[in-house]
Write a structure and sequence with these properties.
The complex is a heterodimer of chains A (about 700) and B (about 210). Chain A has about 700 residues and is mostly helical. Chain A has one domain: Cytochrome c oxidase-like, subunit I domain (Cytochrome C Oxidase, Chain A). Chain A has 23 helices and two strands. In chain A, strands 1-2 form a two-stranded antiparallel sheet. The longest helix of chain A has about 35 residues. The termini of chain A are far apart. The relative contact order of chain A is 0.10. Chain B has one domain: Up-down Bundle (Four Helix Bundle (Hemerythrin (Met), subunit A)). In chain B, helix 2 runs antiparallel to helix 6 and helix 6 runs antiparallel to helix 7. Chain B is elongated. The chains are: A mainly alpha (about 700), B mainly alpha (about 210). The interface between A and B is large, with 40 and 41 residues. Chain B: Belongs to the cytochrome c oxidase subunit 3 family. Chain B: One of its GO terms (cellular component) is plasma membrane.
């Protein structure tokens, strides 16, 4: 038995710490420091779990759970952990660029390349994707009045595959190097000829795992929406978040396959000497660009559409008004989803195709601005005449409208191939897509966390700290990215590791200040969560409806019971819960309760995730015995599961009845809180129905409350 | 809705119980969607092949020089016949629930499918040894092996799935989950036929003509 047979290509100097010993430099110390933080973080988690005795609850209540709500929470937890890493990397990128005048700077070129590659890969595949997936997981079934998704186990498997990818990318901090080929990993640079070693392989397998997980998620959610809506919930009565989830799911079903194909082809080039994207021998790297962006552009809309759904929910709730132009918002969403497949070529206008081809895709790209514009007007008009509460999610929403429009306009500029040739590959482009993704997707997710947190955990988040974090995030974003537009127009290329034009300096300094503000915003957000957990008694809103909500998820207790709805609701209109409150028929006891079947927890999904992670790691390091063993084990788990017949358990009607009647009684007895008192500890989650407040004039917070039977 | 409208075609569950059929529809609909996304994967591979079989020759052999139409035709027949046999297995399952007959038809399906995979591997062997056309030779051959190889891999995993289903029919019998799994396997198997028809037409026939 020799070393390579057992450990593949791992050597002692594969570990990041050896770099600092062999070749001491600031760049290596930072790499080692990051490795240490990853190792210490993992150790701290292990110690915490052991000391608190949380291993068993973690396994029993969370990892083996197939409940869509827990799966959703775990997705968002992954997203936040990965966000912490990638946002620190962003700050390092900014610091390097600030200090890199005439070859200065403190990072080696290779280290810098890894930083922007992991930053992009993580932010897209392991922050944005798990964030939206987690949110859709949690909220969508509640909004359509379902007890779970169509395939709960498949849902858990998607989560575990995504987690396996995230773990793999964290492992790359400690063992070996990551790719330096950017998040899009263009060959031939990422081919074996120019990027030997494990870096690109880490990218390939981490992304492939996430991609397969997302395909399964899309399938699952689309089927759920088509087949699991509660009685009366026609498609055009669904909340807009469900519509955007549906469109995103459809995009996932169609768009992830090209990515999987592209990563497999790149892997075959690298592992088996195929010639898909090589220089010469019939390879064609332009095909990679096509395949990657055939996924990559719909991906942009996979991310933004759920955020659009969040914005629609947020603006209607905090303007206390029915969403304006529901039908047009639905059609706009569908138009965007369809058009998103017709514009991928605008990512490589400069690749050499004819001007007519560029013109077609340029026009298609500009056309996408139309349905998006429709949406913006709808959101604006929703606010007109509404009684707006400037809560944290609403602040994010208003900031979104202002900045997203600017980003959209630079997008229309870039859609013009002539302009694109000028600013292609510059920081102008970097500014543009951050301008779309940060105020649109990321802040949308932050707003969603503020909005649905009380639903998920039964207590509100601390509002003051939330607003403080907003006031760091929003200007921080502007400072960090608007200078990049100027730099881009001055000719600064993206991913640049050093520069020599002194006029860049003030802009880079501004961008650095912005990055610092964003970091401060994130710190405040973490502080907000910590403080809120500590003060959960004061912030408690167990009665489920802290914001005078509109859709069905607000009609059940917070946190919701395992079975979501004691009795499946009957829906007769849009905004069903809001209408029920207005009509005085909310919180009524159902006529009868029935037994509820819920899926049992199972170790299937975490075991598949574990073996998938081992399989991918083994592939990265060419540990062939482990490749075979983990692959076989993965499928053994599936096969063993298929022989189990007792996969469901029954919650007796009496249990459901006791829990639900207790909740309904508490809700009916609660005095209800008016909107101008919703941020006080009076807000226990029973909203004073808007209809009873009167529609005009200031609302007295001491208005009489009629407790409805 | 009338009773017949609420029943899922091709299945007979728990004495034509409508609720069971409606639950089954959800499961099968999900599988249709899976097949659709799998077809997107094949579409991408076809598109790649279409580009590379023209532009990726790179001094290596051309399609017409390496393809054996007779073998491809026989493979087509094998796969179509195996689908035909699977159809009989499903009819037996729906109307008679006779284990022995269902298993026999599954065996026929499996043997034909295995013969298909065997012949395809033999094709690869001939291409590599007699024509010096391994996947590493050119972009065209890379794309050819990936497209047909992905299909062969699908057929092979279908065979493994079939073996497991045979065991489940023997051990568990025709419970609703087993019936639904067989139904899904049948859909999968037929989809692979459709993909193969595409491969036969676009790869082999076009390749030999051009």
């Amino acid at each position: 038995m020799n070393w390579e047979l057992i450990f593949g290509q791992i050597k002692w100097n594969s570990f990041v710490f050896s770099g600092a010993i062999e070749n001491p430099s600031l760049s290596e110390f930072i790499a080692s420091g990051a490795g240490f933080i990853a190792v210490l973080g993992a150790l701290a988690a292990v110690i915490l779990l052991t000391v608190k005795g949380w291993w068993v609850p973690l396994w029993r209540d969370w990892l083996t759970s197939v409940d869509h709500k827990k799966v959703g929470i775990m997705y968002i937890a992954i997203a936040l952990v990965m966000f912490a890493r990638a946002v620190i990397e962003a700050a390092l990128i900014r610091a390097q660029q600030l200090s890199a005048y005439d070859g200065g700077g403190f990072l080696s070129a290779d280290h810098f390349g890894q930083l922007f590659s992991t930053h992009g890969t993580i932010m897209i595949f392991f922050v944005a994707m798990p964030f939206i997936t987690g949110l859709m997981n949690y909220v969508m079934p509640l909004q359509i009045g379902a007890r779970d998704v169509s395939f709960p186990l498949l849902n858990a498997i998607s989560l575990m595959l995504t987690m396996a990818g995230a773990i793999l990318i964290m492992v790359s901090l400690v063992v070996g190097q990551f790719s330096t080929g950017g998040w899009s990993a263009y060959p031939p640079f990422t081919g074996i000829e120019f990027s030997p070693g494990e870096g690109v392989d880490y990218w390939i397998w981490a992304v492939s795992l996430g991609s397969i997980g997302s395909t399964l998620t899309g399938l699952n959610f689309a089927v759920t929406i088509y087949k699991k809506r509660c009685p009366g919930m026609t498609l055009f009565r669904m909340p807009l978040f469900c519509w955007t989830t549906l469109c995103t799911s459809i995009l996932m079903i169609f768009a992830m396959a090209p990515l999987t194909a592209a990563t497999i082809m790149l892997a075959l080039d690298r592992y088996a000497g195929f010639h898909f994207f090589t220089n010469g021998d019939g390879g064609n790297m332009m095909n990679y660009a096509n395949l990657f962006w055939l996924f990559g552009h719909p991906e942009v809309y996979i991310l933004i559409l759920p955020a659009f759904g969040v914005w629609s929910e947020v603006v209607a709730t905090f303007a206390s008004k029915r969403i304006y132009g529901y039908t047009s918002l639905v059609y706009a969403t569908m138009c965007i989803a369809v058009l998103s497949f017709a514009v991928w070529l605008h990512h490589f206008f400069t690749m050499g195709q004819s001007a007519n081809v560029n013109a077609v895709f340029g026009i298609a790209t500009m056309v996408i601005g139309v349905p998006t514009g429709v949406k913006v007007y709808d959101w604006l008009l929703t606010m007109v005449g509404g009684r707006i509460r400037f809560t944290t999610p609403m602040l994010f929403h208003i900031n979104f409208l202002l900045t997203f429009i600017l980003g959209g306009m630079t997008g229309v500029l870039l859609a013009n191939p002539g302009v694109d040739f000028q600013v292609h590959n510059t920081l102008f482009l970097v500014a543009h897509f951050h301008n779309m993704i940060i105020p649109g997707v990321l802040f949308g997710m932050f707003a969603a966390v503020q909005f649905w947190f009380p639903k998920v955990f039964g207590f509100r988040l601390h509002e003051g700290l939330g607003r403080a974090s907003f006031w760091c995030f929003a200007p921080g974003f502007l400072l960090a990215f608007f200078p990049l537009y100027w730099l881009g127009m001055m000719g600064a290329t993206r991913r640049t590791y050093m520069w020599s034009d002194p006029s860049y300096l003030p802009w880079l300094a501004l961008a650095m200040a912005g990055a610092a503000l964003i970091l401060a915003g994130f710190a405040l957000m973490v502080a907000q969560i910590v403080v809120s957990v500590r003060r959960r008694e004061q912030l408690a809103a167990p009665l489920g409806d802290p914001w005078d909500g509109r859709a069905l998820e607000w009609s059940i207790p917070s946190p919701p019971p395992e079975w979501n709805f004691a009795v499946l609701p009957q829906v007769t209109a849009r905004d069903p819960f809001y209408e029920a409150k207005k009509a005085g028929i909310a919180y009524r006891s159902p006529a009868a309760y029935e037994d509820i079947e819920v899926p049992r927890n199972t170790a299937t999904a975490p075991l598949i995730g574990l073996f998938a992670c081992a399989w991918a790691f083994a592939l990265v390091w060419h540990i062939w015995w482990l490749v075979v063993v983990s692959f076989v084990l993965m499928w053994v788990v599936v096969i063993v599961r298929s022989f189990q017949t007792d996969t469901e358990e029954t919650v007796p009607a009496a249990t459901v009845k006791a829990a639900n009647e207790a909740f309904l009684a508490a809700a009916r007895a609660a005095p209800g809180v008016a909107r101008d008192r919703e941020m006080t500890s009076e807000n226990r989650g029973r909203a004073l129905p808007e209809g009873l407040e009167g529609r005009s004039g200031p609302v007295s917070s001491r208005a009489p409350v009629e407790v409805l039977p | 809705m009338s009773l017949s409208e609420r029943l899922h075609p091709g299945l007979n569950l728990a004495g034509t119980d409508p609720e069971g059929h409606e639950a089954a529809e959800e499961v099968l609909f999900g599988f249709w969607i899976f097949l659709m996304s799998d077809l997107v994967l094949f579409a991408v591979l076809f598109a790649t092949y279409a580009a590379m079989s023209v532009q990726g020759i790179a001094g290596g052999p051309r399609p017409a020089e390496v393809f054996d139409l007779t073998a491809a035709f026989l493979e087509t027949m094998l796969l179509l016949l195996s689908s035909f046999a699977f159809g009989f297995a499903m009819l037996e399952m729906k109307y008679r629930e006779n284990r022995r007959r269902v298993l026999s038809w599954l065996l026929v399906t499996g043997v034909l499918g295995a013969a298909f995979v065997g012949m395809e591997l033999h094709d690869y062997y001939v291409m590599i040894t007699a024509h010096a056309a391994p996947p590493q030779a050119s972009g065209f051959l890379s794309a050819y092996y990936l497209l047909t190889g992905t299909h062969a891999l699908h057929v092979s995993s279908g065979l493994v799935w079939m073996a497991i289903m045979a065991v489940q029919v023997m051990v568990i019998g025709f419970s609703t989950p087993v019936k639904l799994r067989l139904m899904r396997l049948a859909l999968f198997w037929h989809m692979l036929d459709v993909v193969w028809i595409g491969i036969f037409t676009f790869v082999y026939l076009f390749g030999v003509v051009s």
